[in-house]
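TA notes, week 10

Several of you asked for a full example with nothing omitted. So below is the full record: structure tokens for the whole chain, then the designed sequence directly under it. When grading your own attempts, check the secondary structure regions first.
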């Protein structure tokens, strides 16, 4: 602990002592202030230690061009201000609440409408809900999915959605429906007709009309490789690297598509009596 820190603790003790005289408090403050200056602390920085929350906050703010103010305290770009009640708060929220005398809800955002994302100038701050967090209705989401399907001739995958930068975001869709497939079903679209593009660099690119076609392609390819009907363990574990290299779907996808491994084999036209030996 530095000499200034020791003197600062001493100052706090004196200020908390009801029997301490004003002269004693003044001497304690002067001793701490003088030592802190010797250690290179500037007066503005020293204000960061005062008990007054407002003074302590603005001591950690610096000025910029065009009336912009910026946070220069803990947390850097993100920023975090520790209030007198011990809780931490984003600087922009603190400024807005203090300026307007309100307590914002957790779902309310605060941003600088001047276009400077880090600006804390009170007149530049606005509160509300950002467009990216609008509460889209289920009908709006399913309608957007139906529009995609009409334009592209197939239901969208979550990857399609993100690459096209459609709204609302994938995370919002999942939060409203739980899974992507449930969202497609709510839109009246068949999840099994989604085209999952497995296209690792340097490997064959499969563009099936449906996921089922890709699953059958994978099973038949492994059967040719083994010279017999593959078991589920062959597909999922023993030849996992081969499956990944070729961009084939997982066994879970096959089971979901056909109901069971044997049903998938039957759809692929492979004899069940030629399945490989069980795993030892």
């Amino acid at each position: 602990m530095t000499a200034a820190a020791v003197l600062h603790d001493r100052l706090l003790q004196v200020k908390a002592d009801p029997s301490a005289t004003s002269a004693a408090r003044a001497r304690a403050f002067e001793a701490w202030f003088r030592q802190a200056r010797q250690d290179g602390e500037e007066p503005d920085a020293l204000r960061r230690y005062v008990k007054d929350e407002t003074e302590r906050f603005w001591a950690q703010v610096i000025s910029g061009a065009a009336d912009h103010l910026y946070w220069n305290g803990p947390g850097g770009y993100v920023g975090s201000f520790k209030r007198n009640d011990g809780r931490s708060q984003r600087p922009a929220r603190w400024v807005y609440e203090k300026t307007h005398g309100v307590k914002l809800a957790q779902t309310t955002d605060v941003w600088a409408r001047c276009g400077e994302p880090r600006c804390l100038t009170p007149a530049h701050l606005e509160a509300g809900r950002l467009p990216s967090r609008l509460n889209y209705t289920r009908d709006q989401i399913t309608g957007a999915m139906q529009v995609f399907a009409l334009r592209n001739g197939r239901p969208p995958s979550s990857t399609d959605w993100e690459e096209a930068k459609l709204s609302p975001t994938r995370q919002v869709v999942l939060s409203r429906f739980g899974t992507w497939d449930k969202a497609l079903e709510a839109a009246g679209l068949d999840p099994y007709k989604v085209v999952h593009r497995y296209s690792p660099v340097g490997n064959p690119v499969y563009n099936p009309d449906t996921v089922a076609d890709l699953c059958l392609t994978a099973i038949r390819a492994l059967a040719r490789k083994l010279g017999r009907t593959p078991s589920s363990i062959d597909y999922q574990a023993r030849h996992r690297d081969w499956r990944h290299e070729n961009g084939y779907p997982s066994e879970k996808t096959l089971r979901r598509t056909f109901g069971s491994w044997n049903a998938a084999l039957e759809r692929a036209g492979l004899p069940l009596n030629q399945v490989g030996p069980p795993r030892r």
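The chain has four domains: 1-41, 51-129, 138-154+161-193, 211-274. Use that as a sanity check on your answer.
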